[in-house]
Amino acid sequence: xxxxxxxxxxxxxxxxxxxxxxxxxxxxxxxxxxxxxxxxxxxxxxxxxxxxxxxxxxxxxxxxxxxxxxxxxxxxxxxxxxxxxxxxxxxxxxxxxxxxxxxxxxxxxxxxxxxxxxxxxxxxxxxxxxxxxxxxxxxxxxxxxxxx
Length: 148
Hints:
Keywords: Membrane, Transmembrane, Transmembrane helix. The protein is mainly α. The chain has one domain (about 1-135). About 75% of the residues lie in helices and about 5% in strands. The protein contains 6 helices and 2 strands; from the N terminus they run ααββαααα. It has helices at about 1-25, 30-35, 50-75, 80-100, 110-130, 140-145, and strands at about 35, 40. It has a two-stranded antiparallel ribbon. Strand 1 (about 35) and strand 2 (about 40) form a beta hairpin. Helix 1 (about 1-25) crosses helix 5 (about 110-130), helix 2 packs across helix 3 (about 50-75) and helix 4 (about 80-100) runs antiparallel to helix 5. The longest helix has 25 residues, at about 1-25. The chain is globular. The chain starts with a helix and ends with a helix.
């Protein structure tokens, strides 16, 4: 069960990072006007468009995606999974904190969706720190140490 939680959390975070990163980096104007998609638009209310900041956000999400995919391929490496969780948790807690202080610019539906989606990302990151390796299962780091 723990491995499934790790796979699910890492997989969802990777999808979010790739979705946001590819869109923001390779089509920053469209990302700014249309994010998060599905007929919603959450960025124009936050201030004027800035291509540099949009592309930087895309690059940061792509870097998170790279780290998350590496961790997904090494899901039994507790140190890597927890490091990935810590990196995501720092970003998501700060990101969530900003947005909950600026909800007044959105309608009620978008306020609720912002809180729900951003809180879900915090939870996914926290799970990576809290879900231990399977009992009796040696993670990749433990196996390497024993070989040395």
